[in-house]
Amino acid sequence: MPRTSAVTELVRSIRNIAANSPVPFADRWSGTGNGLYGSGVQDRQSQIQAMNGQSTLFAIVQLLSTGSQAYGGWKMYRTDQDGRVRYARTDKGSDQRLEVLRHQALKLWNKPNPFMTGEHFREIGWQHMELVGEWYWVLNRGPSGTGVPLEMWPVSPARMEPVPDKKKFLAGWVYTGPNGEQVPLLTDEVIQVKYPNPGDIYRGLSAVQSLLADIDATKYSAQWSRNFFLNSAVPGGIVTFGKRLTDDEFNEFTARWREQHQGVARGHRVGVLEQGATWTPNTYTVKDMQFYELRTLGRDIVREAYRVHQAMLGQSTDVNRANAETAEEVHIAWHEIPRLNRLKTIANGFYLPMFGSTADEREMDYDDPRPSSANDANDELTAKSNAVSVLVAAGYDAMDALEVVGLPAMRWNAPAAPAANEPKPSTASDDKTKPTDPPRLAHPEIHDNYDLEKNVASWVREVFEHGKIEELV
Question: How many Å apart are CA 213 and CA 244, to the nearest integer?
Answer without folding.
Answer: 41
